[in-house]
Structure formats: C-alpha cells, structure tokens
C-alpha cells in the first residue's frame, strides 16, 4: 500500500478520501488551526498530521510513494511551479503517483477576478464575517496542465471538467 503525503490539507475535507487507500497518510498544512479542525474530524491509525509548508514537503524515509494536493496548485505563483514540483519530487519514490485537483475558471464563482499581473491572476474573496482578501488564484487550460506535468512524466492524465480539473501522473 501507498505512503502518501497530502499538501495543504486544510480542514481535511479531501483527506478522508485517502483513508483506506494508503497504509500511511501524512496530511500537512501550514495552519495549525486547520490541522486542529482536521484532526478532530478525522481519526484513523493510518493518518498523521504535521504543520508544514507545502513549498517544502517533509522528508520521509522511506520516500513517499504518492502525493496529493487539492485546490492548492492555483495558489502557486507561475514562476515557482518548477521549483515547487522539483522539491516535491525529491520526496517521492520512483513510480509514485502524484494527483492535483483544482478549479476551472467560471465567472462569478469563488470571488471576483480582479487583475492579472506577472502572468498570475488575482481574486477578491469575501469571508462570512465580511472581511475581504485579495488572493493569488491562477487558472489553467487543459493544454497548459499537460505542458506543465508532461515535463516530469510520460504518463499524464488530465480530466478537465466544468468546475474543476484533475491531473494525475507517475514519476
């Protein structure tokens, strides 16, 4: 069975789908508050939580045999993608499965798109408490995703749906 690292797991919404498909899951997030919520919701002997920056995935011996990040890839500045993937791939064994899921652009969903700068796009998000934030939120066409991930694998599968995309590849 797999030894999977999940980057930017947030409240663990997607983590629950890994349980049962991996012998060991290390769910990481930079936010202690998010990990606290996730650890209260999810308890399984295969699951461990760790405060960790997704740009520097934890070191595992033996190497992880799988990696997943959901709705996080779009928050990586385009100029940092290669460095991010190189660092992630260093933590993974040969033939590891890597899966990313993220949003497809749909006007009016997830806040207002306000700017494009240095190849990145930004959105304004309003929280339930009324506070507004400007966030980095990049959207990709299927061809762009194929170009990004095919540099690392000959086995790239992109499923491009109406609201989100799924990219899976083997190192």
Written account of the structure:
The protein has 171 residues and is an alpha/beta fold. Helix content is 16%, strand content 40%. It is built from three helices and ten strands; from the N terminus they run E-E-H-E-E-H-E-E-E-E-H-E-E. It has helices at residues 32-41, 81-90, 142-149, and strands spanning 2-7, 22-29, 47-51, 64-70, 92-103, 112-117, 120-126, 132-136, 156-160, 164-170. The chain has a seven-stranded mixed beta sheet with strand order 3-2-1-4-5-10-9, sandwiched between helices. A three-stranded antiparallel beta sheet has the order 6-7-8, with no helix packed on it. A hairpin with a 2-residue loop joins strand 6 (112-117) and strand 7. The two termini are 17 Å apart. The mean pLDDT is 95.
Helix/strand class:
alpha/beta
> What portion of residues is helical?
10-25%
What is the first-to-last residue Cα distance? Answer: 17 Å
- Summarize model confidence as the mean pLDDT: 95
Report Rg.
Answer: 16 Å
Q: Globular, elongated, flat, extended or rod-shaped: what is the shape?
A: globular
């Amino acid at each position: 069975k797999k030894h999977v690292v999940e980057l930017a797991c947030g409240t663990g919404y997607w983590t629950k789908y890994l349980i049962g498909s991996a012998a060991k899951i290390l769910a990481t997030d930079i936010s202690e508050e998010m990990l606290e919520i996730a650890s209260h919701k999810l308890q399984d002997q295969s699951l461990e939580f760790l405060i960790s920056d997704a740009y520097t995935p934890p070191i595992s011996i033996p190497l992880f045999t799988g990696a997943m990040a959901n709705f996080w890839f779009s928050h990586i500045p385009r100029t940092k993608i290669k460095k991010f993937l190189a660092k992630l791939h260093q933590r993974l064994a040969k033939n590891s499965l890597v899966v990313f899921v993220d949003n497809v652009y749909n006007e009016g969903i997830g806040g207002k798109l306000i700017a494009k700068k240095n190849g990145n796009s930004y959105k304004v998000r309003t929280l339930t408490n009324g506070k507004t934030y400007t966030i980095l939120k990049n959207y990709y066409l299927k061809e762009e995703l194929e170009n990004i991930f095919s540099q690392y694998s000959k086995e790239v599968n992109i499923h491009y749906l109406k609201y989100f995309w799924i990219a899976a590849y083997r190192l």
